[in-house]
Specification:
Blueprint: H1 14-25, H2 30-34, E1 36-38, E2 42-44, E3 77-82, H3 87-99, E4 104-109, H4 115-118, E5 128-133, H5 137-150, E6 160-162, H6 166-170, H7 177-190, E7 197-198, E8 200-203, H8 205-209, H9 214-234, H10 239-244, E9 246-252, H11 256-276, E10 287-292, H12 302-318, E11 323-325, H13 336-351, H14 366-388, H15 392-397, H16 400-418, H17 458-465
Helix pairs in contact: 9-11, 9-14, 11-12, 11-14, 12-13
């Protein structure tokens, strides 16, 4: 053991550091020069000490140990989007994708596809499969159940979940809340025997992709969770039983370190909520899907989007994703190259950056611990305010949630349009004419009950691309 005398430097307190900084500033204002805010409320300081975020200094377990010997402690599946149009070609694409490193699928379904054909030759027990309805959810539910029955799928041969919840239907214009709750309970009961399949997903990412801040994403997403738990408990479903069958979909956006902190705080808050409601679900029991952000990507420079996908993926993995979903900007119309890059980013981060070697590599970082502390406090305060004002459903029905998200969205989009907020490849360091291939542009038309994915660069795209 090295004797402490080897280090001749005296300990310095936080106040010592601040005093020295103020001397170096030579009269300049400390806050305006060296501090800033993200997501309107979270303060970024020039230095941190171990006292800053003491309550969040312990490592978090993101997943339970693998049942397979020799596997690294950190497990996160690399899932990719599949939009089946022709079933045989979709099956071919799926098999090629899985053979080239993907570990899961997000199947975007209308409910009329032949899953037997689409998933022919797929060893479902070794991958994650997430079903995402793009039309009528009820048709897709029947489609999945018919497929399971037709092949007599064993309960240990289905992993993944359904990217739907009763509250998702409200954003689709379905107003039969009690009916949607009943549908949700039916799904919980049917899939109860599939221990690694989550038939309901709380979609927090919708708020961030529509332009909300990380604080709004957690506040409204957790408010949604509270609303659903209240409804399920009133129908005889216990809190523990419900949460065990819920997955959580969050996004990873442009602010790398705050995004890591946000995802870790999400897991902590779910655990605290469960405990407050009489359940004892541990932090490693929650299934967290993290997708790269749609909001941060631009139609004006697809090359910069690839860089953003990379550090967002890294934030998602470090922040605790159990499945990481890199979403190509063009989604359904993405090119072969865009799909390949989206699939390969998590592979490179695992095989070359070794992000699966340590469970929680960001534990002990004073900066992140302070961010976690601030985010935790702010989200709790805003959740209390949401409940005081009637809860998530009341605020959805009155469109207060929509107004708050759209207000944040409009402010950022105007800032990008005016040049106050800089985006590389968009209004800063743009590629030369002829060297950058712009992506196709379509105007977003949003109904009052919707919160559709948008982009920070959207108003600038209207100005530059709409008529091109």
């Amino acid at each position: 053991m090295i004797e402490r005398d080897f280090y001749p430097f005296p300990d310095s307190s936080y106040n010592d550091w601040i005093e020295q900084i103020q001397k170096d500033l030579k009269g300049k204002d400390f806050d305006s020069t060296l501090t800033s805010k993200v997501w309107e409320h979270i303060k970024i300081s020039p230095c941190y000490t171990k006292e800053a975020g003491k309550a969040f200094s312990h490592p978090i377990l993101f997943n339970q140990p693998s049942p397979y010997p020799g596997q690294n402690p950190r497990i996160s599946s690399n899932v990719v989007s599949i939009f089946p149009e022709d079933e045989k070609s979709a099956n071919k694409e799926i098999l090629e994708t899985l053979n080239n490193g993907a570990e899961g699928l997000v199947l975007h379904l209308t409910g009329i596809e032949n899953l037997n054909q689409i998933l022919r030759g797929v060893l479902t027990e070794y991958i994650q499969i997430y079903f995402n309805p793009i039309d009528d959810p009820a048709a897709m539910f029947s489609q999945i159940e018919n497929w399971i029955e037709s092949i007599s799928l064993r309960t240990d041969m289905l992993n993944g979940g359904i990217l739907w919840s009763p509250s998702s239907s409200l954003f689709m214009g379905h107003e039969q809340w009690d009916q949607e709750i009943s549908t949700g309970i039916s799904l919980l009961n049917y899939f109860k025997k599939f221990k690694n399949f989550f038939p309901i997903t709380i979609d927090l990412a919708r708020y961030a992709n529509a332009g909300g801040t990380g604080i709004q994403e957690l506040t409204f997403g957790l408010g949604e969770l509270v609303e659903l738990l209240d409804a399920f408990v009133s129908k005889g479903i216990s809190v523990s039983e419900a949460i065990e069958q819920f997955a959580f979909l969050a996004s990873a956006g442009e602010l790398h370190f705050p995004e890591i902190a946000k995802l870790k705080v999400l897991r902590i808050l779910i655990s605290e909520l469960a405990l407050n409601l009489g359940a004892s679900n541990s932090e490693d029991s929650f299934h967290l899907i993290v997708s790269t952000s749609l909001w941060t990507k631009s139609r004006m420079d697809k090359n910069s989007n690839l860089i953003r996908q990379t550090y967002e993926t890294m934030a998602g993995i470090i922040g605790g994703a159990n499945s990481i979903w890199v979403r190509p900007v063009s989604e359904k119309t993405a090119s072969v190259l865009e799909k390949r890059i989206a699939r390969n980013i998590p592979i490179i981060l695992k095989e070359e950056s070794y992000l699966d070697k340590i469970m929680d590599p960001s534990a002990g970082a004073y900066f992140l611990e302070d961010l976690e502390k601030q985010i935790h406090e702010k989200v709790l305060a805003q959740l209390a305010e949401l409940e005081k004002n009637g809860g998530w459903k009341v605020n959805f029905d009155s469109r207060i949630i929509h107004e708050q998200i759209k207000s944040t969205r409009n402010f950022i989009q105007e800032s990008v349009l005016q040049g106050d907020k800089k985006l590389v490849g968009v209004n800063k360091y743009q590629g030369k004419a002829g060297t950058v291939e712009n992506l196709s542009f379509e105007k977003i038309e949003e109904k009052d009950f919707e919160l559709l994915p948008s982009r920070a660069s959207y108003l600038l795209e209207i100005q530059n691309l709409a008529n091109s």
